[in-house]
Amino acid sequence: MSTLSSQPSKKAMRSPAGTTSSTSSQGGNRSSSGQTVKFARRTSSGRYVSLSREDLDMSGEFSNDYMNYTVHIPPTPDNQPMDTSVAAKAEEQYVSNSLFTGGFNSVTRAHLMDKVIDSEVSHPQMAGSKGSSCAMPACDGKIMKDERGEDVIPCECRFKICRDCYMDAQKDTGLCPGCKEPYKVGDYDDDVPNYSSGALSLQGPDDAKGDRRNMSMMKRNQNGDFDNNKWLFETQGTYGYGNAYWPQDERYGDDGDEGMQRGILENQDKPWRPLSRVIHVKNSIISPYRLLIVLRLITLGFFLAWRVRHPNYDAIWLWLMSITCEIWFAFSWILDQIPKINPVNRETDLEVLRDKFDMPSPSNPTGRSDLPGIDLFVSTADPEKEPPLTTANTILSILSVDYPVEKLACYVSDDGGALLTFEAMAEAASFADLWVPFCRKHDIEPRNPDTYFSLKGDPTKNKKRSDFVKDRRRVKREYDEFKVRINGLPDSIRRRSDAFNAREEMKMLKHMRESGADPIEPIRVQKATWMADGTHWPGTWSVPAGEHKKGDHAGILQVMLKPPSHDPLMGSSEDKLLDFTDVDIRLPMFVYVSREKRPGYDHNKKAGAMNALVRSSAILSNGPFILNLDCDHYIFNCKAIREGMCFMMDRGGEDICYIQFPQRFEGIDPSDRYANHNTVFFDSNMRALDGLQGPVYVGTGTMFRRFALYGFDPPAVDYTTDKGSETQALKTTDFDPDLDVNLLPKRFGNSTMLAESIPIAEFQGRPIADHPAVKYGRPPGVLRVPREPLDATTVAEAVSAISCWYEDKTEWGDRVGWIYGSVTEDVVTGYRMHNRGWRSVYCVTKRDSFRGSAPINLTDRLHQVLRWATGSVEIFFSRNNAILATRRLKFLQRLAYLNVGVYPFTSLFLVVYCFLPALSLITGNFIVQTLSITFLLLLLAISVALVGLAILEVKWSGVGLEEWWRNEQFWLISGTSAHLAAVVQGLLKVIAGIEISFTLTSKSAGEDVDDIYADLYLVKWTSLMIPPIVIGMVNIIAMVIAFSRTIYETVPQWSKFIGGAFFSFWVLAHLYPFAKGLMGRRRKTPTIVFVWSGLIAITLSLLWVAVYPNSGPQEGTGGGGFTFP
Asked: Which residues of 183-213 are buried (b: 16+ CB within 10 A; e: fewer)?
């Protein structure tokens, strides 16, 4: 394996992680030369070679195809105080222009890309951005740009030189080709600190000016490798680069105690105000609600007791089935209803958040934000089912969110490794150069361009600038062109690949002719997929090939937008299409990630992709908070992150593991036929859980505390002292009493940078210690420190962390990160956190925080519910069953989680109960032998209490009655179809070990592009439709049989028929949306559905009549039939 051909980068020399290297495979060798990475330009055929400069010069044949690059750039002087060195800027830009690939048993390479997309790139942060032309003769290279779009020039004479010529000049003579003077090498570590902006230094209290490399040498183990764990946990230094601690008095000069306490005094000058508060439901609503729960619970007990003591001896089988189902329904109702006794609402105060974290002060005159960083994850897997345009719009809404730009980082996980997704993300980053400043200038909402330009109404409402109409018209035109480019990418990639493959075939044919080979022999050239710069795409190809197909491709990481400068960058009226004067034009960091996949490895689907993002983001940006979104869920409220941060940064927020936002959906039919909005769950159940230990994790729209995802317990504030324990280095026992220093790699893997990032994320995620009640906080102002620039060592370490072998023999997926072993990994992940004692918060904002899409056709909806229910069955039969939870899980929270694992089993009893009215009509019997006043009164009391509970629940949750009824209807539809299938599949997996596979829910539109509800009328055959159809047809046939029999009786007993038909009609009323969905708009229901269902229903009915003929009361007799008193 090749290594760096020069010294480690400055960042590597400043941190211990830079002195170590990640292994290329499990158990690989480690060296002190830095993470293994090779910069090399690939040939036109996509191959790599390892040739020295001398070899290239000697070989004229390869001199045009192969060029070798090294990573290190010698340091150069920097004349601007508090700015990163020119060399570091150039290296960061070069790193962002490189496509990093690597994986199992392979070299980590950085492919320098001339262009990322076919269109022109203008923003200086984006990959592929170039500056002026190089002034060296016969060189067509481009100069790197800094974050302000200016050329990076390493010499004071302003001689323009590209990086490659600069490296050659340094290697040959060390003289500047322009002024013939030596390049001056500045000391990167001797920059004079400047505290005018309130930024605090990062040196340790034991050796403020010592050489870190000397300490690193002292911390080596017996093998000579750097012992990162010993350095990280046993010294009194800081936690690594990027962290800060409360400084000593002399660091502020002669101010003494006054200087040290400046930040605290500034906060004490203002009255302390909370960032959030809890709003309890009015007593006039919640008290009757709780009383009705108790009364119905008591009534249920009396009702079931009466039913058990009064069996129907004329139809004991009917009585036994009914009483069994009713007992289970009562148990299921208790699990669902009891956790709802304490619903709460919450509200935030964004003005207080701004005053505490973003306002200028004497110690922070420039107003640098003290908010913690946050990493946003977007996951996608298949560009055919998840359109790239949808994902691109989600990315644009994230990049334009209202949060400090330098504290934001966006990561997109492409689990399919598709070039289509890669180039779509690059196009989105390019369009963000215009869209993001436009949103900031005119305060646009929502910041998803597709949704914004589709809004109906006056777009000029509440807009103050006179140039808004002109700007909007220009941006709309650019967005239309952007959509054309995105939608045209599949054809563009196909044509480009066909052209390059044809060229390769011509080269091969020419080579065969020159070598005298048999011309009849067929030409064998791989049908590769080609990138815009004319090289092979390292991910999956359109025509699958070895190491280039789904489930078998290298890991890919591309920094689409490099980290922005720490200070605002104001635009002008000259360099953009619009006038962005006094508008910050910086863009957040944006990274494309496609983890490595190889045959023989269990990649654990979405949970594995999320864990890969957790590791890579910890190395690159290490935001103490993580927000994950599905590719079709975009940010509808640009202040949503600030809303969630109000809870995390408030007093008592240190033990919050995640903030769950409600899911809101667009594109749902007005009648919400299949309860897609799921408002009963999001507005009722989740609010109720918020009054306990917190809502469950539902998979998207969730802001996590990174430290909680690492599997640690919530902080124990008992060990903090009055001596300022936040200035002391944390020990392993502070994180987890059972975690040994030597077992750290076993839990998190062998990445030293990842290990270093853990205490940094923990510290930076603490609330500000601005109140005596905050026992576990951080001092104000410590997060104003500028971020370190990216270097190749750091990015290469991130590539190794997304390799397929990294999780082997670690606790990723078992205790750390997203939990594996269930198709509903979200619920299990949240349960594990609650089980360790963390709590969560439900954040409902006045303006919806996020919006997404949901399947509105019947088949996709049933398959979606099937996946959820199957995951619940898996949870019930696993060690994640709430019965086995620890004492840290509160009792009512335990009931709620127990209900999550139990609810699919209700389908077994529900199916039986739906057949009971039909059986009663056919046989002439009923579940009770005789109707008594006691039975009717108890049944009436239960029904009235149920109606009262529904009305009161609608009052405190805000759910409409129609929405409540739609939820009841779909509960029966899904309970008799998807839930039943889930129980069967779950039992097969537990008993027979048969694995369950699910297809990805399609986010693409229907075939009728003019009708947004076209998918509603699509009917696709699925076996899940059979049980509800059979139930419906059996009840209809039973009503016909009972009606016919009643007509031809000598003494018609209409009371029997009406009583039985009422319950059958109740079942059919619940199945009405299902029947309506089967009809479709164009009668597209498969004929086989009705044929099979009809045959089954008729066969069952006739078989029942033949085996159990009518033995009801004869003429003039009372018998044991059902009659009204």
From this structure: beebebeeeeeebebbbbebbbeeeeeeebe
Query: Alpha helices, DSSP H only, in 924-1013?
Result: 933-957, 961-975, 978-992
Q: In one letter, which amino acid is 566?
A: H
- Cβ atoms of 859 and 903 within 8 Å: the answer is no
By residue count, the chain amounts to: 1125
State the pLDDT at residue 82: 33
**Which residue of the set 227, 415, 552, 770 is catalytic?**
415
Six-digit token pair at 21? 């290297």
CB 1052 within 8 A of CB 1038: no
Binding positions = 379, 385-386, 415, 605-606, 630
Q: How far apart are CA 813 and CA 820, in angstroms?
A: 5
Of 533, 690, 826, 1015, the catalytic one is 826
The angle at the Cα of 677, spanning 662 to 278, to the nearest 5 degrees, equals 30
Q: How far apart are CA 935 and CA 921, in angstroms?
A: 20
Token code pair at residue 863? 């398959």
On whether the CB atoms of residues 744 and 753 are closer than 8 A, the answer is no
Quote the tokens at residue 817.
């990160």
H or E segment to which residue 521 belongs:
none
Q: Does residue 530 sit in helix, strand or coil?
A: strand
DSSP string, 744-767: HHHHH-S-HHHHHHHHHHHHHTSP
Q: Is the peptide bond before 446 cis (omega within 30 degrees of 0)?
A: yes
Low-confidence stretches of the chain (pLDDT < 70) are: 1-91, 114, 118-131, 144-149, 184-270, 518-519, 521, 575, 717-741, 995-1014, 1080-1125
Residues making up the binding site for Mn(2+): 606, 630
Cα separation, 794 vs 418, in Å, equals 24
| pLDDT number for residue 210 | 36
Binding-site residues from annotation for UDP-alpha-D-glucose: 379, 385-386, 415, 605
**What CA–CA distance (Å, rounded) separates 1006 from 932?**
55
Taking the alpha carbons at both ends of the chain, their separation in whole angstroms is: 90
Q: Which long-range contacts (CB under 8 A, 24 or more apart) does 326-331 make?
A: 328/906, 328/909, 329/906, 329/909, 329/913, 330/300, 330/304
Contact 842, 279 (CB under 8 A): no
CA Rg value for the chain: 33
Per-residue pLDDT, 925: 82
Active site annotation includes 168: no
Q: Give the other-Cβ count within 10 Å of 651's Cβ.
A: 19
365's tokens: 């005159």
Q: Which residues contact residue 616 at a Cβ distance below 8 angstroms, ignoring those fewer than 6 apart?
A: 411, 557, 591, 593, 798, 799, 801, 802
Would you call 851 helix, strand, or coil by DSSP?
strand
Alpha-carbon torsion (710, 712, 713, 718), positive or negative: negative
Inter-axis angle of helices 1054-1070 and 1026-1048, nearest 10: 160
- Whole-angstrom Cα distance, residue 100 to residue 593? 10
Question: Can you name the residues that pair with 666 across neighbouring β-strands?
Answer: 853
Q: Which two tokens stand for residue 119?
A: 């269109």
CA count, 13 A, side-chain hemisphere, 877: 20
Q: Exposed, middle or buried, 463 (CB in 10 Å: 0-12/13-18/19+)?
A: middle
The DSSP output letter for 6 is S
String of DSSP letters for 125-136: TBTT---SBP-S
pLDDT of residue 326: 94
pLDDT for 1106 equals 61
Q: What angle do CA 152, 158, 159 make, to 5 degrees?
A: 90
| Token pair for 398 | 């994230």
- For CA atoms 920, 925, 927, 933, the dihedral sign is positive
The tens digit of pLDDT for each residue in 385-430 reads 899 999 999 999 999 999 999 999 999 999 999 999 999 999 999 9
361 Cβ partners below 8 Å, 6+ apart?
Answer: 198, 266
**Catalytic site includes residue 533:** no
